[in-house]
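Table S4 entry, histidine kinase.
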Amino acid sequence: MRMFGGRLTPSYWSVRTRVTAAATLLVLILLASGSMLMYRAVTGTVYGSLHDRADSVVAELAVLVRDTDPHGTVPITDADFTLLQVVNEQGTLVAASEPMLGSPPLDVPRPRELGRPVYDTVTVSGRGAVYLVSESIETPMGVRIVHAGASINEFTRHEGLFVGLLSGAVVLGTVAVAWIVSLSVRRALRPVREISAELRGITGRSAGIRVAVPASNDEMSELAEAVNVAMGRLEATLSRQRGFVADVSHELRSPLTGLRAELEVALENPDTEDWPGVARAALADADRLQGIVSDLLILAKLGAGVHVARERVDLGELVRSEAARRPRRVPIEIRADEGITVRITAHHMVRLLTNLLDNAERHADSRVWVSVRTDGPDAVLEVRDDGAGIAPEDRERVFWRFQRLAEGRERDRGGTGLGLTISRDIARAHGGTLMAADSDKGARFVLRVPLDKR
């Protein structure tokens, strides 16, 4: 329950306060319990010793009373139990030890049963606190009550000091633990405060900034490293997003500008303009815009991780059906092992195969080769052509958005520059990879996706 607006409840305390409070409370309970146990142990030891010695003194005094029925003075047999009295059944003092001579009978309850001692702590006038043992005994002269007492003034006087020292030790120990825990937690959380301050100072323009990693090899250094990894990923994502927005703006501006210019020129001379030609040019620009928008939607879905149902597919059969779907400019040779099944989203993989086959056909001189095989836990698809190939320094650049090499622009001026980008994203969405590999002649693309082992 939250009281006083919730500000005093532990859920609103800082970590340092919560840890300190919990540790302090636990230590207080342990110290208090330990002090009580120690007090009980000490007092138990003292009173246990008095109890045993009192039994011996009373037993000796009872034997003396039964045998001799003393009157006057009785001898002291224990140096601590010096307060001895013998009282008859009527309560009259019969005999006493020397320190008790002249003192009246002790005003204490009479033992109810014969032969069973009664132990008590009483206050005796002029003697202070006394540990007293009383016993009723049967003698030839009648019932006698014997008392044996030991002064415990020294113990009771030091008992208060002992309790005070124990209480002080509990308080000082609790305060010391609270201070040590608070200081330790503060020092332990200092890197967190520093990381928080550095994170608050980071803005959208703070490129390349990372938080300082503590020198200690502990959870705090792991936290700082994890923060830096996350910041690196976030920075890379933001960089890709900015580049993507810039590229999209540029790619969309070109066909829109061309379309607008063609229409404006046509409208300036409407009577002499070839309107069917204008319509065909406008339709070509519209087709290019539609292609760009469609590819961007696919990229957006793949980047957002939209869940799409997957099914078991024979990769070799999929390649053969896609290669035979329409006539090609150059022949395609397919070598696919049987029974290579993968769990994929079929229409996504068809898009990837289409992009690779169209790209190979566009750049091939006379032939395209496609192979499907297994390599360990992966299914491997290779698409190779006999064209000019890709320079080593351009093998990653071809996967960038809107990046088209000079040869590609010459062979296909209507492309969007997103085909290979989409293909790699599809491969990654299936837990695989797509890369441009070394080849003796032409370009060679290698796709790896996990096999379906079920």
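The longest strand covers residues 128-139.
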